[in-house]
Batch of 2 targets.
Target 1
Amino acid sequence: VFPPCASDYYQFDDLLTPEEQRLRKNVRAIMEKEIAPIMTQYWEKAEFPFHVIPKLASLGISGGTIKGNGCPGLSLTGSAIATAEVARVDASCSTFILVHSSLAMLTIELCGSEAQKQKYLPSLAQFRTIACWGLTEPDYGSDASSLKTTATKIDGGWILDGQKRWIGNSTFADVLVIFARNTTTNQINGYIVNKGAPGLKATKIENKIGLRMVQNGDILLNKVFVPDEDRLPASIPFRIQARLFIVVACFIWVVIIGGFGFIFTQLQSSILEDLNSFSNSLFITNNVLQQVLAVSRVMVAWQPIGISMGVYDMCLRYLKERKQFGAPLAAFQINQEKLVRMLGNVQAMVLIGWRLCKLYESGKMTAGHASMGKAWITLKARETVSLGRELLGGNGILADFLVAKAFCDLEPIYTYEGTYDINSLVTGREVTSVAGFKPAP
Ligand code: FAD
């Protein structure tokens, strides 16, 4: 039986709306009753429990903040709290949901046309179909924007060629959102590849030490055809289209009239500036991608919060129940210090996570905010689960006692969605205005 939640020491619940509190309670109850009893067994087998998908659907969180097309339209705070509650009981389940919802569905919502949203989102929101999100490649992980998978235009669609690595849910996903580079324009777009497309192959990555229930795959794309209607459009904002129209009109006027050297010189700089913003706008998909990553980094930051909450709950119960030297483990001062350090970490993590959500909801969150949150929270969670592992002694290395499982599950979370280092560099660039991603020449 999963221990009662004891980690809300600073009564964080008071900061939530009644709706968010209800959501939290509901998700906690379903996870503790339906998922907790089976998860260790599936984690050990490294299999995904397909039979629990209807139960995960009953959480009502697939699609998160997306409004319409059958999605729940939750606040970011609500969505984040739900993520923590899922991760408190099982991190693999929360990763399964985040890849499907906060990465794949959100990309379709932000980069897709109305027709694409209507076609894909309703069944994804019900988990009738499952999605994955393929950005990382074997040779491009942290440096994902250098990706090499290509999209070549042919009549009626596109041909995708390349490889993806680590893609969660990819071995069974119905809808695969794949990022590829246009061979003519160099632009990166998302392409929706449907399960069973000729030339598509996903092979499970074996022997993971964490998130073992999640099916991560190596994807091979060998001349996979994607029809035009399944390419996520890279729309050029109207403002830039209008400015470009004015610039081109001025340019033609100057060339036709000729001889107006002075006017031409004056216009030239404005033309170059607008052409520059036009060329930036060609990479609008990349910008939207940053938006997707910023939101999903907030969501991912709530996974270590949930994991730490679950580990604290486990440890508190264990220390009260187990006796050594004639006294419960909880009676030893050293153990109390560790327990309180864990509890303090959870309070600080929750408050940073909560503030991130509020910054996002008020339109003030930057990429640097999201990255620092993800980086710092996973760092603190690593300390928290490690203390928990210690407190359980030998049982701290057995998956059955959940703390060891949580300890292992945190490792991939520290690395995915931007490693600790990369997220620190994103924030570092924002606060110093100097990018530190490349080694000195
Ligand atoms: P590398 O980029 O090779 O980095 C290795 C080390 O070098 C890291 O410590 C890193 O911080 C450091 N490093 C790299 N560049 C720099 C730099 N400029 N400055 C300082 N340090 C640097 N991807 C998807 O697209 N979809 C998924 O669903 C998905 N799921 C995943 C699930 C799991 C379990 C895992 C482990 C990964 C998943 N990923 C997914 C991929 C994940 O996002 C990458 O693993 C991550 O971005 C790191 O890339 P890499 O593994 O290639 O490491």
Target 2
Amino acid sequence: MYKFDREAYDRRMEWYRDARFGMFIHWGLYAIPARGEWVRSIEQIPKEDYMKYFEEFNPVDFDPRKWAKAAKEAGMKYMVLTAKHHDGFCLFDSQYTDFKSTNTKCGRDLVAEYVDAVRAEGLKVGLYFSLLDWFHDDFPHYGDRNHPMRNNPAYKNDDRDFDRYLTYMHNQVREICTNYGKLDVLWFDFSYDTLRGEAWKATELIKMVRKLQPDVIIDNRLEVSGEGYGSLAAGNPTPYHGDFVSPEQMIPPNGIQDVNGNDIAWESCVTMNNHWGYCANDHFFKPAPMLIKKLVECVSKGGNLLLNVGPDARGNIPEESIERLAEIGKWMKKNGESIYGCGKAGIEKPDFGRVTRHGNHLYFHVYENTVGPLPLPGVKKEEIQAIRYVATGAEIPVSTSWVHSDYPTMAFADLGEDPVLPDGVDTVIDV
Ligand code: JFZ
């Protein structure tokens, strides 16, 4: 019988809940075709043809210190890199395959360099590991959801030995948990159809992972990937329950609660444009002020934001992403106090923006000008010790106007005569 250890869980989750903001990196051979990380599946590229990217791969600009610096400058506290994505190509020196970066022109263990760089910047180290593997000969064809034969009952996987694949997969997980020092996050991806939970020999897998990396934080995708939140949320944790729920390309409307209605840990992973892996023709990047607001939204709902970048084939994070990271970082330097260690405010969301909380501090994020003083719903005048702009520390008076005497449970912050807040920028007020 598995017994969920609440104390150990809370202990290992502490830094992660405080961090709130991390960088996701999708990078691999698929940066060369530059049409996203699903390219081999979507375009039904035969193995032999995909090999040409392996022959070609030579990321001459790969410098993970630059990535880690960009993440740190943006105010991110952790990073998660695709050690292996669905295409099966390993950015690490696996002894169980030849399909790895050390066998390409670059000849380097990219994961080894990455973990050193991330630690050097004082950030927490995460690795993504795909449960699917389109390269391995024993991974079932139906694992490829775009395979033309997937729904054809006549199609058999007779020649494929899934147990042999599981041995391979477990061996590789052992390698990444053994050869790269202390890992802070392990991001498995993903379960579907009948391939979930014990189909991955998940109990055995997690037992090994926890032995090698006792405090690593693990996502919930050994169990789910969208359909439900996983067994921890359901109140009957399996030995391979995830430590956090992993909503993808969405921010849960009300945060995420378990069956008992208690808030639980979650992390929205979100792309900056519309692809995870580098996509040369996708220039639909979300503007930086929007990304800042999405981060605030996650925190105000008790979650984390894992914001993705897809470096190109040379190893450079796209210019559009770099610009946005820098702009987010500028804001975070001034207003990070309203993000780190913060969570749900526990008061009504105001019309003009969002609220986060850290202890007794309420951080009002003001997105929109109000007419006259700023209402602080749920805050009584007599409860207020001080109101300050977070960015400058400048004091803001509580409104004494007779107009507001009708609102006993709502104080008003007096931002001055006809305050005009810069449009589209998140101004933060500490109450
Ligand atoms: C998965 C990956 O397939 C994708 O490439 C990326 O790495 C993302 C972060 O995670 O995305 C999924 C996973 C599951 C489903 C869809 C996308 N699903 O179950 O439909």
